[in-house]
Amino acid sequence: MLSDYEPDFFFEEDKMGMTITTGSIVLEKDGSNLIGISIGGGAPYCPCLYIVQIFDNTAAAKDGTLQSGDEIIGVDNVSVKGKTKSEVAKMIQAAQSSVTIRYNKLHAEPAQGKTLDLILKKVKHRFVENMSSSTADALGLSRAILCNDSLLKRLEDLKRCEGMYRGLVEHTRRLLRSYYDLSQTYKDFGNIFSTIGVRELQPRASEVFTKFGEIHRQMERYGVQMIKQLKPVLADLGTFLHKAIPDTRMTIGRYADAKFEYLSYCLKVKEMDDEEQSYHTLQEPSYRIETGNYEYRLVLRCRQDARARFAALRSDVQVKIELLDNKHVQDVVQQLQRLLSHLTTFYDQCHQLLDGQRFFPIEVDLAKGAFTYESVGGQFQSQDDDEPEEYNVAEEAKEMAENSGEVQSLISMD
């Protein structure tokens, strides 16, 4: 058995190019007689005894000196070389109110732990994120589903909110365009009626046409004024659509990336734990473990860093989504109220212009030839006589038969 060999049997530590520095720290225990760390390694399989995890809201986490992957070399000035992790845990628990930990800090580059295997695990997490559990189990990918994150589901709500705002902005833009066209129609009406009023000889009719045209011109001014007042509403809705929502979606994307990276490191740690357990079960030596387990400690450090980024981005996403929801509720109500207020003001102004005005009927002096129209064969003038003109049908038919050329021309024109 491996435990029967002498300590000198272990290989020289393979630090994989990483450096270590020695230090010590005093940690106060909490009410549960704990300092907030879990340890791994140690005799009889590994020459190093190291920190596996730092728990949140504990003395070790609040101090921030110790990190995952750091080696513990002494407890209260007692060396832990050659001791098991259970013995070291009892030494820490035996201390009174505080404990002194001597350590070798591992200086690791996070990029060194981001291997191709980690990248493929990250891709697998993205692939199975929206799968059902039964589908993932059938494909053998169930281990990649480590947590059910509700924040990513908010991305779908964000997409629906974006679609609603996009439709609202487009509808408001079309509404303003329609009111602009309506204002130009008012302007054209005003110009036409004012021109008629200037040319009208009858004083009363001239006054009515001129006033009616001026009212339409004033309605055009009110319409343009309303459109200028509603443009900020469109700009505010566009800001929410094109800046606030994309920024939140980008933050959720970064959060999802950090989450998948953290879960990939968790999965890698689990696989390395299973590998180590299989070697222990078969009682076979492992080069990685016998040389200080630095690869495993590197992954532990990367997992801790990834978890810190994941927690920070999660907090950021929660704050942004909460602010976005509050702004969404308040902004929609406020902008719709502004829209209705300006439209109401516009209609009230137009109503006041026309209220109480009596323009019609209008008496107009017409010239004697006002209703004289040109025909194809000449001019048909209106008769001043009260009795209608009598026609001789036979003579007219004979004349039309003689002038067949004129008949053909009339038919072709008809």
Automatic annotation (TrEMBL):
Keyword presence, Oxidoreductase: no
Keywords: Actin-binding, Calcium, Cytoplasm, Cytoskeleton, Lipoprotein, Membrane, Metal-binding, Palmitate, Phosphoprotein, Synapse, Synaptosome, Zinc
Biased composition, class Polar residues, residue ranges: 405-414
SMART domains in alphabetical order: Arfaptin, PDZ
Pfam families named among the record's database cross-references: Arfaptin (PF06456), PDZ (PF00595)
PDZ domain segment(s): 24-107
Predominant subcellular localization, coarse grouping: cytoplasm
Its membrane topology: Lipid-anchor; Peripheral membrane protein
Any one Gene Ontology molecular-function term assigned to this protein's record: actin binding
Protein name listed in UniProt: PRKCA-binding protein
Gene3D superfamilies, A to Z: 2.30.42.10, Arfaptin homology (AH) domain/BAR domain
Gene Ontology terms: cellular component: cytoskeleton; neuron projection; perinuclear region of cytoplasm; plasma membrane; postsynaptic density; synaptic vesicle; trans-Golgi network membrane
InterPro entries associated with the record: AH/BAR_dom_sf (IPR027267), AH_dom (IPR010504), Arfaptin_fam (IPR030798), PDZ (IPR001478), PDZ_sf (IPR036034), PICK1_BAR (IPR037959)
Subunit composition and interactions: Monomer and homodimer. Interacts with CXADR. Interacts presynaptically with the glutamate receptors GRIA2, GRIA3, GRIK3, isoform 3 of GRIA4, isoform A of GRM4, GRM7 and GRM8; with NAPA and NAPB; and with BTG2. The interaction with NAPA and NAPB disrupts the interaction with GRIA2, conducting to the internalization of GRIA2.
Location of the AH domain: 146-355
Comp. bias (Acidic residues): 383-393
Biological classification of the source: Eukaryota, Metazoa, Ecdysozoa, Arthropoda, Crustacea
Subcellular location: Cytoplasm, Cytoskeleton; Cytoplasm, Perinuclear region; Membrane; Postsynaptic density
PROSITE patterns given in the database record: AH (PS50870), PDZ (PS50106)
Protein's GO biological process: dendritic spine maintenance; intracellular protein transport; positive regulation of receptor internalization; receptor clustering; regulation of Arp2/3 complex-mediated actin nucleation
UniProt region (Disordered), positions on chain: 377-414
Described function: Probable adapter protein that bind to and organize the subcellular localization of a variety of membrane proteins containing some PDZ recognition sequence. Involved in the clustering of various receptors, possibly by acting at the receptor internalization level. Plays a role in synaptic plasticity by regulating the trafficking and internalization of AMPA receptors. May be regulated upon PRKCA activation. May regulate ASIC1/ASIC3 channel.
